Amino acid sequence: MEFIVKHNAPESARGACQIITVGQARKLSPSGQRVDKASKGYLSAILKRGDMEAKLGQTLLLSSVPGLAVQRVLLVGCGKESDMNERGFSRVINAIAGALAASGAREAEFYADEIKLKGRDLAWKIRHSALLLSNSEYHFDQLKSGKQERRKGLRKLGFNIARGEAAKARSAIAEASAISAGMELARDLGNLPANVCTPAYLARQARQLAKGDKRVRLNVLEEADMKRLKMGSLLSVSAGSRQPAKLITLEYRGAAAKQQPIALVGKGVTFDTGGISLKPGAAMDEMKFDMCGAASVLGTLKAVSQLQLPINVVGIVPATENMPDGLATKPGDIVSSMSGQTIEILNTDAEGRLILCDALTYADKFKPCCVIDIATLTGACIVALGKIPSAVLGNDRALIDDLIKCGEQIEDKIWELPLWDEYQDQIKSNFADMANIGGRDAGTITAACFLSRFTKTYKWAHLDIAGTAWKSGEDKGATGRPVPLLTQYLLSQVK
Ligand code: BES
Ligand code: MN
Ligand code: ZN
After folding, report:
1. Staple 91 to which of 15, 57, 288, 324, CB 3.0 to 4.6 Å?
2. Ligand 1 touching residue 464 (CB < 6 A)
């Protein structure tokens, strides 16, 4: 979807649709009042008649309003001004998206700044609107046969603003477009089934990114390379799979070589059966989403490349399936990780940490200023926090605080869980340096405890996105999270 900046007077709009917000007591926004005047009170008469109560998210589409050149006017209720908050704002934008999708309008103009929202400036409102509108246009129907009869949706939205704000608005639009492009890639990769989206497929997608931007360099390690690097933990997960594992590295160089990169490490389990510790059948199809951490790394690199950010970023994706097989790793097997630490694999379904630990050790070679790993790591995360925030844990206060702030800024929230030393006892092993599971209690924390043993040499944060990376049920599908959070963090490292 295209977003533009406009400065025309509201009563002189002449396109397909004009969006007008209405507050409590059916009060038209300032632009609405001017349009009302031009239409000789047509809008206020409709409001008075009671067809539009201006409740939050209520819409009314008017066609061919007398006195106006614009084809349609979409009235949108915003409720009480003092009750408006971020969620309310999102509801208004989603209501607009729904009403426009149901109409034939392919273009519209909108006065985003007329919605008053404490602590949020014009740039925020534009960025957030653009993100929600682009996301609502997303469809995944590439694997349905036959012609799709879906109506063509919104193509272009104009943000009507004061002239002095144009520069700010344009950069907000550029950020939102890049984030949407990254989310779209992450959603597509997540939604693709595991018989298409294999480790090799992820490597090919990464190659596409590198092809499109000379600042991006790709490196793919094969299993033989991993063996040479002694990545026994990663290889223990791919041992049961016919699809060879890949360790994909994308280096984005937007700044001088001496500037330390930010490393993003994404779990890329393209299908998680649980391995020999086989998962139960119910909803197992959703384990095709177990590479959403990897998808968010590729999506974020896409956004960074589109924005040409003057920073260095390295994306690292360990990609593999987790399958049962005659050669698969068995409960009780002990493997040696690249770090030299040995691991007793008590449950082959706790495979995410086994591939991440070697990728995290490998990350050290890039001398990163910080490392953020992103993984659909534990079902326990959903038990603890539900599906609203991702969990964050790590070894650096400032990094975690920065990430939390960025999440609030871009509405891609995260919540911290404690990574106290006391929890480390839960992953003691009688036979190896550590076990790969820590019992039922605090499963998200003990998974992070495991990772923490491989991240001693740098500042590190871990994002558990088990609850946020995809939706189940009727709207089953990848969300594209946390591409907004990660991109916002990288943007914050520029400013
Ligand atoms: N990919 C799963 C985690 C997961 C499960 C995410 C369900 C979202 C929904 C991970 O590999 C896994 O299986 N974790 C186990 C760990 C346990 C064996 C310690 C889990 O959460 O049950
Ligand atoms: Mn698993
Ligand atoms: Zn998994």
Report:
1. 57
2. no
